[in-house]
Design brief:
By secondary structure, the protein is mostly helical. The protein is 57% helix and 6% strand. The chain has 17 helices and 5 strands. A 3-stranded parallel β-sheet has the order 1-2-3. It has a two-stranded parallel ribbon with strand order 4-5. β1, α1 and β2 form a beta-alpha-beta unit. α3 crosses α15 and α4 packs across α8. The longest helix has 30 residues. The structure holds tryptophan. Tryptophan binds next to β1 and α8. The site of tryptophan has 14 residues, from β1 and α8.
Length: 365
């Protein structure tokens, strides 16, 4: 059997450049290479509700934003099944059975969940649904027999948990599920793109994002405000490129051809960095260069977004259809689960006839 790829995002806002370099770009590449049997991208609204249960409006609004972001970067619903998690009820059911195979103390050891609990001040009153979301994520992956899960490195503990559940299920009830593995980007800046303020992570809550849907003017303003080397005050001063976010972004985005196109006095990024280190190269010039490169990448995405946004009815039709398809695939898997667990009573003629024999014997003695 070929690979089955599944990944997803919590719909809690628009997607940003960090999502783009960390995962969206790679998804589109995998999708277009086509070396798989099936590819799914899931909008994880039920998971998003585990820490936004009191703000369903945010999730509701974000579903449209996220699907538009997907389509505009090139995720193609004819090649990839884009579906909404809550619509696939089989996921909830599988989560309930999986919960029996995990202990509370195991869930409390999950390092990603641990730091999220701190971040959300859940230490003294932890919603049970939040604690168990890794179990629901194990269901997301295994219901569709996904073996390849492209995610950020913070998701590795979820995959570890999913493999443990698969092993526990298979050894208790028989071989039903496959062990999935995470595929994590190799480049460290792809794994974690810093924010425009120099913070190690681009994140909505930190307010340091460039969104895929930002206007040309917003992108320019954000690039011009980017954190550089605070000691590089005059153009003639020698500057640092390490920890200088503008250069970090150039490391991620700049190609040699961009120099030919926009800064022909330099052959490549090394030459530009050398000049900056020596002194005599101003931040504004470097930022303008970065802005042009980002614009080349973002302009077509923005344009496609605008086009798709004209017909949201069509997009929701697509989402409904593909969510239904996912649910039907999930239903077949749940039938296997029922059978393996022996809870397929009404489908199991042998079971019913053996029960009826048993009671006949007992009462006709
Ligand atoms: N936890 C993931 C995130 O926060 C989203 C997600 C939910 C997911 N279910 C998934 C990712 C299944 C991969 C596979 O980004």
């Amino acid at each position: 059997m070929g690979d089955i790829i599944l990944t997803g995002d919590r719909p809690t806002g628009k997607l940003h450049l960090g999502h783009y370099v960390g995962s969206l770009k790679n998804r589109v590449k995998m999708q277009n290479e086509g070396n798989f049997d099936k590819m799914y991208v899931m909008i994880a609204d039920a998971q998003a509700l585990t820490d936004n249960f009191d703000n369903p409006q945010k999730i509701k609004d974000s579903i449209a934003e996220v699907v538009l972001d997907y389509l505009s970067v090139g995720i193609d619903p004819n090649k990839t099944t884009i579906f909404v998690q809550s619509y696939v009820r089989e996921l909830t059911e599988l989560t309930f059975y999986f919960l029996n195979l995990v202990t509370v103390s195991r869930l409390e050891r999950n390092p990603t969940v641990k730091s999220e609990i701190k971040l959300r001040n859940y230490e003294t009153s932890l919603p049970a649904g939040f604690l168990i979301y890794p179990v629901s994520q194990a269901a997301d992956i295994t219901l569709f027999d996904a073996n390849i899960v492209p995610v950020g490195e913070d998701q590795e503990p979820m995959l570890e948990q999913a493999r443990e559940i698969v092993r526990a299920f298979n050894s208790t009830y028989g071989e039903v599920f496959v062990e999935p593995k995470a595929v994590i980007p190799e480049n460290k800046y792809q794994r974690r793109l810093p924010g425009i303020d120099g913070n190690a992570k681009m994140s909505k809550s930190l307010g340091n994002c460039i969104f895929l849907s930002d206007s040309k003017e917003e992108v320019r303003r954000k690039v011009m405000s980017m954190y550089t080397d605070p000691n590089h005050i005059n153009v003639s001063d020698p500057g640092n490129v390490e920890g200088n976010i503008v250069f970090t972004y150039l490391d991620v985005f700049a190609k040699d051809s961009d120099f030919e196109k926009y800064l022909p006095e330099y052959k490549n990024l090394d030459e530009l960095k050398d000049h900056y280190r020596r002194g005599g190269l101003g931040d504004v010039k470097v930022k303008k260069f970065l802005n042009k490169i980002l614009e080349d990448e973002l302009a077509p995405i923005r344009q496609r977004r605008q086009e798709y946004a004209k017909d949201m009815d069509k997009i929701f039709d697509m989402l409904r259809k593909s969510s239904k398809e996912a649910s039907e695939i999930g239903r077949k898997k749940i039938e296997q689960v029922h059978k393996a667990m022996g809870i397929d009573y009404f489908e199991n003629k042998e079971y019913i006839s053996s029960i009826s024999e048993k009671f006949k014997k007992e009462y006709n003695k």
